[in-house]
Amino acid sequence: MKLNDLSQAVRALNQEVDRHLGRDHSVAPVCLGKPRIGITVNQTQYGSSLARAYSDAIIRAGGVPFLLPLTDDIDTLLESLQSLDGLLLSGGSDLNPIYLDEDPIRGLGEVDPERDRYELILIRLATRLSMPIFGICRGHQLLGVAYGSTLFQDIVSQYTVEYAIDHSPKIPKTIGAHRLTEVTPRGRLADILGIEEGEDIYVNSLHHQALREVRPPFVEHAMAADGINEAIDAYPELDILAVQWHPEQMVAGGDARQLRLFAHIVERARLYRRARQFHTTELTLDSHTDTPMCFAQDFRLGEYGPTLVDLPKLELGQIDASIMVAYLPQGELSDEAHERAIGYAEAKLTELHRQVGLYPDRACIARSAADVKSAKARGLKAIIPAIENGYALGERLSLLQYYRDRYGIVYVTLCHNGDNAICDSARKSERTHGGLSPFGREVVREMNRLGLMIDLSHTGEETVADVLELSTQPVIASHSSARTLCDHPRNLTDDQIRAIARKGGVVQICLYAGFIHQDDQQASLLDAVEHIEHIIRIAGIEHVGIGSDFDGDGELIGCRSTLDLVRITMELLARGYDEEDLALIWGGNFLRVMEQCQSSAEV
Q: CA 527 → CA 304, 523, 534, distances in Å?
C-alpha cells in the first residue's frame, strides 16, 4: 500500500511513526512461556478499560493477555510491542472521519480521537515488526481504514438496500444474531472456523459502522445477508485477519467454534515468537542486496528511509548480515567503457565504506565469515561488500586482488544482463564466447587463488558448465531461483542446482517476483518458500539460502523489505523445519562456502 493511497491524516501519522523507526533499535529479548497477546483498550472517564471476555478468550486459547497502555508515545508503544507476540484490536467507539478525509455525518456516534491515534500507531508499528494481528468490530473497521478502505459512518442512514438487517439487534451478544453468507471457500476464515462450502453459521452483531469498500491488501472473506462486510484478510501480504462481530462474547456464551479464532492468533503468535527467538540467537545473512545503487547525496544508511535495506530495517527485522553489491549495468566492451565501469565500481564501494563508517556503534564492514560472526557477538550489523558484474574488471585481472584488499569484496557475480569480457549471460546474450572466454578462465583461476567466491547468478548455461568444470572451489548463486517452478532463463535448472551442490556450493533463493512465479503479480513469500523446499528436495538442505535482491528487483507479496524476512522464517517453521535447519538456510550454508574459499586462498 503506497502512502499516497491513504487519507491525509493516516499518511501523516504513518510518516511520524517511520521517523521514530529510524532511531537505533536494539530488539528486546524474547520472553519465554506462553504467547503474549497485546490487547488495545477503551478510554473512559475513570481510565482505561476492557471487557473481560477478550482476555478470557485469549487465556482459554492458550495465550497470555496484556493490556496496552493508551498513549500516543511511539517509543513506549514500540517497546511494548517488542515484548509481545501478537496484537488484538478490540471493539469500541466510532472512528473519527478525519481518517477518511470526510466530514462527520449526522448519524456518527461518539468518537475517541486519542484512541484512534493510539491504535493507528500500533497498527503501523506491528506491521513494521511483521507481527500477527487480529481485529474485532472497531478493530476490523480501523484496520481497513488504516490501509485505505472506506467506511459507512452510519449504516442506517448511508446503506439502503431492499433487504437490510439490524446490525445492533436487541439479542444477547453471547449468541448468534444473523448469518454469515458468501464465506470465501478455502480462505483462512473458513479453515479456522471449519465452515463447509454452503454452510450457514450465525454470529452476533453490535455495531452501526462498517467497512464500505474494502481495498488491498485486504480481501473480503465473509458478508452478512444484506451485503455488509463481516470479515477481511490480508494474508499473505500481511498477517492480519479481522471480523466485524464479537467472537469473544460468543466464546463467553460457550461457543467453542468461535474460540478457534483466538486459538488462531495465539498459534500465529507462537510461530512469531519462535521465529524472533531464532533471529535473536542465530546468525542470519542475506547474500545479495543492491542498496549501494540507491546511494545519493542525502542518503544515510542509519536512517529509516525509502530503501528496502538500511540499518533500522536490519535492526528491527533482526537480520545480522547483508551483502551489499556494487552493481554495474552491462555497457560497451571498449577500453573507454571499461575504465568508466571501474571508476563507477570504486565509487560505490568507497561510499559503502563511508556509509558504514558513519555508524561504528551499529555496523561494521565484514570481510570474512569470522568478521560476520564477530559482528553478531558484538551486536553490530555486518555489511559485506561484493561486486555484481565482472564488467567492473574490464580486462584487468589484477583488479580482483585490488578490490579484495582495498574494499573487502567476498564475491564477484561474473556478469549481468548481457555478455561481457568474462563470459556469456543468461539474458541478452549473443553467445559471444560460448561460455567462459579465455580471460574468463583466468578470472576463475584467480578468484580461486584469492579466495573469492564465484557467483553464477545471471550467467548462461554454458558459462555455468564451464565454471563448474574449471573451479577448484565451491561456487555460489547469490540470488537465483529454480527454473522447474518458474521457467525463466535467469533461474537454474535442476541439473545445474545438483551440480552446484555436488561442488559443495549453495543456491540463494532470489525474492524477485519474475523469478518466483510465472505470474509475477501473484508471486508471494509462500512461493519463495516453495523454491527453498524444491532445492532441499533435489539437492539437500546444506545447499540453499536466501539472497533477497532488495533494492534491485527483489520484492514479493508479503516480503517487501528486510523487515519482512522474519515471515519466511515463520513459514518454514510452520512447515516443520527446526532451528538447526533454519541456521543452515539463513547463512550457515553460505558462510561454509565463504570459509572454504577463503581458507584455500594462496595470498
A: 28, 6, 10
Phi-psi region of 309 (alpha: psi -120 to 50; beta: other; left: phi over 0): beta
Contact 249, 91 (CB under 8 A): no
pLDDT digits (tens, 9 = 90+) for 473-521: 999 999 999 999 999 999 999 999 999 999 999 999 999 999 999 999 9
Pairs from 212-215 (Cβ < 8 Å, separation ≥ 24): 212/149, 212/150, 212/151, 212/152, 212/158, 212/159, 213/149, 213/150, 214/144, 214/149, 215/5, 215/144, 215/147, 215/148, 215/149, 215/150
Provide the grid cell at 36.
503474549
In 15-110, the DSSP E strands lie at 36-39, 42-44, 47-49, 64-67, 86-89
- Calculate the CA dihedral of residues 169, 171, 173, 176 and round it to 10 degrees: -90
d(CA 505, CA 577): 21
In angstroms, the CA 348 to CA 15 distance is 29
Q: What's the confidence (pLDDT) of residue 2?
A: 44
- What is the mean predicted confidence (pLDDT) over 568-596? 98
Question: In this structure, what are the phi and psi dihedrals at residue 205, rounded to the nearest 5 degrees?
Answer: -155, 130
**In CATH terms, is domain 3-275 a member of 3.40.228.10?**
no
Query: Residue type for 2, please?
Result: K
Contact 62, 266 (CB under 8 A): yes
- Model confidence at 1, pLDDT cuts 50, 70, 90, reads very low
Interaxial angle between packed helices 566-574 and 256-281, expressed in degrees from 0 to 180 and rounded to the nearest 10: 120
What grid cell was written down for 161?
438496500
- CATH 1.20.58.1560 holds for 283-599: no
What average pLDDT score do residues 220-234 get? 97
The CA distance from 354 to 324, in Å, is: 13
Domain positions in the chain are 3-275, 283-599
Global pTM? Answer: 0.95
Please answer whether residues 204 and 175 qualify as being in contact, where contact means their C-beta atoms are separated by less than 8 angstroms: yes
Out of 249-253, 441-445, 571-575, 599-603, pick the least confident. 599-603
The answer to whether residue 30 scores a pLDDT higher than 70 is no
pLDDT at 24: 56
184-187, long-range: CB < 8 A, 24+ apart: 184/219, 184/220, 184/221, 184/222, 187/219, 187/221, 187/233
